[in-house]
Amino acid sequence: MHRGRAYLALTLASLFWAGNYVFGEMVTAEISPVSLTFWRWAFAAIPLLVFAWAIERPDWRGVVREWPWHLLLSVLGLTGYTLFLYSALGLTGAVTASVISAINPATIALAAAIFLHERLRGVQVVGLVVAFLGVTVVLTGGDLLAVLRQGFRIGDLLVVGAVIVWSAYVIVSRRLATPPITATAVQAVIAVVTMLPLVAVVGIALPTSAAGIAGLAYIVIFPSMLGYAFWNLGAAAVGPARAGIFLNLLPVFTVLIALVLGQSLEPVAMAGGALVLLGVYLTLRVGRSKRADASADVTAP
């Protein structure tokens, strides 16, 4: 995939996932995180399989040979991550959860440097630091001592758990030879099957209000089907460290969606969002200005 298209795919994935925060908070007010996670993948699995067959024409024997990796990735990225996130949204709110999640690029880049031997340039490190400062400004409302005085809420810790699980998903996914849309489809099927014992114990429900049904439909179509497919396509093209930087856009997009839905935006949030965008620019600028170092473009373990 051309790098420009990969960047577009990663940007769209971040936009769709930002909507997942806002609509996920809305839907979990009606049904449990377990119900939302189960229905999300139950409704998305078949369309994803159809897309995979039509677009990628995968070698299903090769897919089956990689079943242990698909099982692990399904548990990490499709079941574990979404359960952590949806459990957190009712406790910490969509905007705050997306801001905390923006530390993901730092954790992904660090894991890629340790396990995949991807080199981080000085400008990339500066970009990560600037983006993290933007996240900190939004999270604390401009008061950097607020976290020390108030501590982290349970919802904040659940989001941190989601960050750790997603970082592991990104790194492990580099071992797959399965095409990205096919991988997402297979892992969605596995997620539905592996959740059946949990569903049998705790039960599930569907939203009943028009807003809840619309929110579930959005989550199935955009964050689940298109978001994961675009993310896998983009990450496979540019590598996990650079792809992870796009997760800094999550709080920015989440705030914009919140504005569209009528919520107010504080000037501090605008300043923090500007810092996040600056951090993204500094990190991506390396790929254009420093072509000599091939390690900046590592796409395989």
Can you offer a commentary on this structure?
This is EamA-like transporter family protein. Keywords: Membrane, Transmembrane, Transmembrane helix. Pfam families: EamA (PF00892). The chain crosses the membrane at residues 34-55, 67-89, 95-116, 128-148, 154-172, 184-206, 212-231, 243-261, 267-284. By secondary structure, the chain is an all-alpha fold. It has one domain (3-288). Helices cover 78% and strands 0% of the residues. The protein contains 14 helices and no strands. The chain has helices at 3-27, 33-55, 60-65, 67-92, 94-101, 104-115, 122-140, 146-150, 154-172, 180-202, 210-238, 240-245, 249-260, 267-289. Helix 1 (3-27) packs antiparallel against helix 11 (210-238), helix 1 packs across helix 13 (249-260) and helix 13 crosses helix 14. It is globular and about 50 Å long. Mean pLDDT is 82; it is low at 287-301.
Features:
301 residues
N- to C-terminal separation?
A: 18 Å
N-to-C SSE series? HHHHHHHHHHHHHH
Strand composition percent = under 5%
- Counting DSSP E segments of at least 2 residues, the number of strands comes to 0
Q: What is the count of DSSP helices, taking H or I runs of 4+ residues?
A: 14
Structural class: mainly alpha
- What would you call the shape? globular
Main pleated-sheet profile: none
- Tell me the count of domains: 1
- Gyration radius, rounded: 19 Å
Pfam families: EamA
Subcellular location: Membrane
Domain EamA: 6-139, 154-284
Family: Belongs to the EamA transporter family.
Summarize the entry for a quick read:
This is EamA-like transporter family protein. The protein has 301 residues and is mainly alpha-helical.
